[in-house]
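**User:**
My hope is that you can spare some time for a protein that puzzles me. This is the protein in question:
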Amino acid sequence: MKNCKANKSLIAIFDSGVGGLSVWRELTAILPGFHFIYLADNAYCPYGPRPQEDIIARTKLIADFFISHGASLIVVACNTATAAAIDSLRMSYDIPFIGMEPAVKTAALHSKTGVIGVLATLGTFNGKLYHRTLERFASDIKVIEKAGTGLVELVEAGKTSAPETRELLKLYIDPMLEEGADHIVLGCTHYPFLTDEIKKITGDNVVIVDPAPAVALHTYNTLQQHGVVSEEKPDPLTQTIFYSTGPKENLIRVARSILNAIPDEQFIEKSF
């Protein structure tokens, strides 16, 4: 197990790109007294097509980086990385890791039609965690699965409302609607940035399930269980340091769309 002296008020978050900012947004809302490091591993984005062993090795490099900065808890704000690496990370380090759990349970419990859709990456669909979740909570309902190939790249490129994005979304979502799905689970942290476009396709009668709020609450509860509290009152504009392993422009754009006026010096390009 690896560890060094942790800063109890420092939480680290990473994703293959900007998608994890949908989780960061929820975390800063529920944990305003904490400091954050966010890393967008856009030099290796997307994770989805990569072999599991490559994702494990990459996430351990990132974990080492975070721990060297004193992180007391790491949020794996990426469904694919969670599916591929969360078990290995938890066995390798003695700090808590919070992963992205497929929000199938919520959709299955509340579905009135008995049909739900899941939009995720192939890495998530192939993971043991997803299949365990289906077996536990969705064994008696119909689940329409669609791998959102190409969507991560469009979000990374800032094309969340582009015509090609809506066309691709329709390709994935229309079959769910045709089967009667009344809930659609977003199984990738990039996808909440497409919610407005998804709703234009589904209308108001379909519930879009974003797992980020539940992950933030799980993080809050984990900190409480470990007795970690923070009485600091950091300035929201300097509360987070943002790293990117590739060009930082898209990270800056998306972060500032959530919290305007974050200073330039909070964004750092870091290759490893």
The mean pLDDT is 94. The longest strand covers residues 7-15. The chain has eleven helices and ten strands. The radius of gyration is 18 Å.
